[in-house]
Give the backbone structure.
Amino acid sequence: MKKNILKSLCEIADYISPKTHLVLGLDFDGTLVPIQDVPSSVFIENNMRSLLDLLSKRENITIAIISGRSLDDLIEKVGLSDVVYAGNHGLNIMGPGLRNIDIKALQKQQTVEKAFVLCKNLTNKFSGIFLEDKTLTFSIHYRNLNPKNVQELHLSLKNMVSELGDLVIKTGKCVFEIYPAVETNKFTAFSWVTTQIVDDTTNIGKIYLGDDDTDEDVFRSLKDGIGVHVGHKENSFSNYFVKDPIEVKEFLSWLSQHDFGLTPTIGKF
Ligand SMILES: [Mg+2]
């Protein structure tokens, strides 16, 4: 049975205290902000932004926001200078002194563009879907599609992907995402950020919060860290859960009020 992290704060403090640095990985939609039908209409609350700002300015804490949104979109939505941003589920990373882009994903971009053109035709066939261009990837949102037709849409996408090759479909909440077939995922992106602080990450605390299927890649592989699923999903690979972005904020607020004796023995980036 998974535990609510807000009821396990002593355990979390015990985990953090011996570490030299904490990397806090966060998904965006559904984690820092409630999910909206139209992704562009999402805004981060001022007090959530202030908390992230406060934590990101601490010398011994790194905040990495890892989202399916494009990098530019994510940076615009959050708007903080000391945060590391990873767009397209980690394909495109930027932060203070940091830059990393998945070269293999760039090489497959033409195929992604071909798929985008083919999917435009699907918007005539499947009424209610809409496409979101995210540069290295794109999404097909189907919240407004008749649920009876979702399986047929999925099948059409699977056929398209197998014909074009070099692509995979990621699934999310009422969204399919066309993604280049590369090894990068949210876990590899999160790990990459931690290794930018120090090569041997044994003494780095790692906490990751997210609500998406793609966040399960982190929970599944994060052996020496703390995974927190946002929402109610019994079969999540996470160790802990919180109910919603409001509880995420409570957790961040608790973090911001403690220093845990973290020793800033290493420079940040
Ligand atoms: Mg999410």
Observations:
- The chain is about 35% helix and 25% strand.
